[in-house]
Structures are given as C-alpha cells and as structure tokens.
Amino acid sequence: MLFNTFDFAIFLPIVFLLYWFVVGKSLKAQNLLLLVASYYFYACWDWRFLFLLIFSTFLDYYTGIKMEQAKQFHFKRFWFWLSISVNLGFLGVFKYYDFFAQSFAESVAQLGFQVSPSTLGLILPVGISFYTFHGLSYVIDIYKQRIHAERNFVDYAVFVSFFPLLVAGPIERATHLLPQIKSRRVFNYEQAIDGLRQILWGLFKKIVVADSCAHFANEIFNQSGDYSGSTLLVGAIFFTFQIYGDFSGYSDIALGTARLFGVELLRNFAYPYFSRDIAEFWRRWHISLSTWFRDYLYIPLGGSKGGTWMRVRNTFIIFLVSGFWHGANWTFIVWGGLNALYFLPLLLTNKNRDNLEIVAQGKIFPSLKETFQMVSTFALTVLAWIFFRAESVGHAWSYLSGIFSRSLFSVPEVRPTNIFVILGLFMLIEWAGRQHKFAIEGIGYRLNRPVRYAFYYVLIVSIFYFSGKEQNFIYFQF
Questions:
Q1: pTM over 0.85
Q2: Is the peptide bond before 412 cis (omega within 30 degrees of 0)?
Q3: Cα–Cα distances in Å, from 216 out to 186, 229, 381, 386, 417?
Q4: Rounded distance, CA 346 to CA 204, Å?
C-alpha cells in the first residue's frame, strides 16, 4: 500500500476514526488497533514477509527480557549476540547474499577461473533495513543498560512496526518512541491539522516534484549514451531533486500521519540542499540513519577522540557502511566512499562543525559567501548522486565522462520548461520555510485564511493534475 494511492486514502481515515472515536478511551485498545493496522498495511505488500517481521519482533522482544534477567554476564552476552546474529543474518541473506556470490565469481574470473555462483534470487522484503535497525538499536540499548526491556509485547511490536514508518523510516529509537506508545494520547486538534498540512506537502513533493523529475531522469539515465553532456547534467539534476522530493516527501507523509495519532516521530530531513558544506548536508539528510550510525558505530569505534588515522578510518567506515546499507551494489559503496572524500578536508581542518545554524537565519537572502558554499556543495552532491542512480560503476563513469565533454556547452536536448518552473517555485517555498520543521508549517499562522486556503487549493489541484501512474518510493528498495 503506497501513501500516494486511493487505497491509503481509504485506509487512513478508517484507522483514524476507529482510533479516536471507537477505542479512544483505552490505551491498550489503541495500541492493539495500531498493531493490527500496521500488520495489515505491511501484508498488503506481501503477506508472506509479515511472518518474518513478526519473528524478528518476537526475537528482539524475548532476547531483551532474557538479557535483563541474566544473572551472569556471559548469558547476557549470549542473548545479545543471538539477536544481533539472527537479525543481521536475515538482512545478509535477503539483501546481500547474491551480491557477494556474484562478486566472488567475478573476482575469481579475473584470475582465470570460471565459477558459477549459486544465487538465491530472493525478493527483498520491503522495509527490512528499517525495522531491523529498530530492533538492533533496542537490543543494543538494553545491553548497554540505557533502557529497560519492554514487557508488553503489543507495545514493543507497535514500536517496531508502526505503519507510517514501517517501510522507509525514519529509523526510530526505543528511548524516543516507546514512551509515547506507552503514554495515554489525547486528541490535539492543532497537532492533527499540522499533520494534515505536512502530509499535503509530502504528497506535493512526491507526486509533483519527484515523479515529474523521475520521468526525465529515468529517460536520460537509461539512454545516457545517446545524449550530450549538457543533457546528462540536466538528468543528474533531475535525479537530485527526484530523490529528495521522493524520500523527504515520504518522511513528511510519515511524520504527518503519525501526528494524526498523537505521535511525534524523529525528524528525517532539514533542507539538505541549502547546506554550506558536506558535513552540514549529512546533518540534514536522512537524519535518523546518520545519527544511528553515529551512535551505534562511529562513537563505539572511537569517534573523533583518537588520532588523525583513527578519525580518518572511522569516517571512511561510517560512509562505506552507509553506502552498503542502501543496497547490494558497488555503486552505493563508491557513493559512500566519494562522500567520505568530500568530508575528509573538513575533518582534517576541524571545520566539520562550522555550520550548525540555519543558513541566513533571520534574513531574506544569503550572503555571497553562503551562496557560493551552497552552490558548491550542491554541485558535489549532484555528482555523487550519479553513482547512486547508475546501474553500475562503469555506467556511472561513462555518464560522468559524457558530462565532462565538449557537448557540456551545447543546448540540452531535453528542456521541460514547466518542470524547471516547478522546481524554482518549490525551492523558493523551501527557502522561505527553512526555519520550520517542514516548508509550509508557518503558512498556518502567517497567512490570513483566504490566502492560506487558496494556497492549499493550488497544492491539491497540482497533486491531482500531476498524479498519473503510481510510482514506488525510491527507498522502498532498501
């Protein structure tokens, strides 16, 4: 079930009405309803993988209790590694087995030996990378004695499988979401209206911005050998906006939907394309994943406390693992390594935390220096996204070679003027709302009612006008 479908438009109001007006007086009944709704939501993709989700949930729930009950450390450690091994084992088999088998065969072939790898050809369960990381953080936090094990299975299962975040995040923490699940929730009109506003903006990002860019980005990337350098550059820019509108649009819909049920999820995007350096970009892009790797991998490895070699090593590890998390393809690993190289000069000069505040805060326009920094960072990001989108590393290199050729200065063959207008207006709205949690949040109290509703009307009409063939969200494949 996609957020941008009529099925979800029917599903959401039904669950909302049952949640507040039928079982609203009972927290247990609310949580049970959320769990049933979440499992139904997930089963709509492929009911067979629902059993994998339930097994993973029960495993972490049970091992969490056993770790807390263990009177000797070696028993606690046994249950901890059992959970970690099984969870990563599932992820490895479904997501990475075929990749390693094929990579091994290709490596051996370079030595003159022919090997026919036995691949499984398994379908990747949607959302497995996200709900696995929910469980991993929970188990690690219990092992480190940061939290206590949850005894109520329904409450824990809702934490893992809450339907707004189940298939593409944000990646939640038990310390943040579980207390909300266990606390009585009272309907808040302002919170619900703000949630609807955020859903509307997320749908606009997905349908109007991302899907419109996807049409041209797919055409150019799929036939990159037929286009000039200028057209290839346009295609890379389109994909840059496609992935942002697609993923941040999903996150806005997820956060807005959760607010309808009185739940506040972790923020996942904070206007990353207005970043002044790569370090700032990664503080603003897929925030829940970046902070997860920071807390559960980077800091345990020593973080930035060691010498230069350790800091460089840890930086490359975190970016390479982040790339590999996205998919079983060398393109993602190269993408992660390239971002590590971007980050390295900032790390070595101790400038990786220079831009912590919002760009041009309290001002209408950025300074010339800030403008140059944003354009430079955006350009580096565009180049990195080529590896993310390409079918293979060879495809990415040929695409880059095509861009940096004499034809870069020719007139692009693809010139969809209406899409450029949409992107320009979109970025203006994002810029105007960059000090809020989402771009149109402030419109609710800054504009008078007629203008405000006229603006909402334009967004809704645009969504219906541009809606056509249903397009999956990009991050569903991860």
A1: yes
A2: no
A3: 45, 15, 19, 14, 12
A4: 35
Whether residue 459 has pLDDT greater than 80: yes
Give Cα separations from 194 to 16, 203, 264, 272, 277 (angstroms): 15, 14, 11, 22, 31
Residue type, 461: V
Any catalytic annotation for residue 326?
yes
pLDDT tens column, 71-87 = 899 999 999 999 999 99
C-alpha to C-alpha distance for 243 and 367, rounded to whole angstroms: 27
Q: Rounded CA gap, 465 and 208, in Å?
A: 8
For 224-271, the pLDDT digits (tens) are 988 999 999 999 999 999 999 999 999 999 999 999 999 999 999 999
Give CA–CA dist 44/42, Å, rounded: 5
User: Vertex 88, ends 86 and 93: CA angle to 5°?
Assistant: 95
Which pLDDT score, from 0 to 100, does residue 110 have? 60
C-alpha of 366 from chain center: 28
- Say how far apart CA 397 and CA 382 lie, in whole Å: 14
167-217 tens-digit pLDDT: 887 999 999 999 999 999 999 999 999 999 999 999 999 999 999 999 899
Residue 239 near residue 385, CB atoms below 8 Å: yes
All residues at 6 or more sequence positions from 233 whose CB lies less than 8 Å from its CB, including other chains = 403, 408, 412
Rounded distance, CA 270 to CA 290, Å? 13
CA 349 from centroid of its chain's CA atoms: 29
SS3 323: helix
Return the structure tokens found at 458.
């334009």
DSSP letter, residue 47: G
Once rounded to an integer, what is the mean pLDDT over residues 91-102? 74
Q: Catalytic pick from 148, 326, 395, 436? A: 326
Which backbone phi and psi does 162 adopt, to 5 degrees?
Answer: -50, 120
